[in-house]
Specification:
- With 88 residues, this protein is an all-alpha fold.
- It has a single domain, classed as Orthogonal Bundle (Non-ribosomal Peptide Synthetase Peptidyl Carrier Protein, Chain A).
- The protein contains four helices and no strands.
């Protein structure tokens, strides 16, 4: 799971072009939206597209998205549990 969290940190910094953000300093348990990264709904949409493309996991409603994007750890857990591309 930690490997997936680290991979997500790198991907998020890359796809969102977060200037000044470093994967090494991202808190896996801190809030993703509205937290220190300053992510907004457009950023979440970009992450949803990346997650579907890279991991084959759909996040297709707002209620689920709010739970999944609570933190990097909750996002990684959801991907890990639902991705057909990750070996359990």
């Amino acid at each position: 799971m930690e490997q997936l969290i680290n991979e997500l940190k790198v991907r998020i910094v890359e796809i969102l072009d977060l200037a000044g953000a470093s994967p090494a300093t991202m808190d896996a348990d801190g809030p993703l939206v509205g937290g220190t990264l300053g992510l907004d709904s457009i950023d979440v949409l970009e992450m949803v597209i990346m997650i579907e493309k890279d991991y084959g996991v759909r996040i297709d409603n707002r209620e689920l998205g709010e739970k999944v994007f609570a933190s990097l750890r909750t996002l990684a857990a959801y991907i890990y549990e639902n991705s057909p591309r990750l070996k359990k």
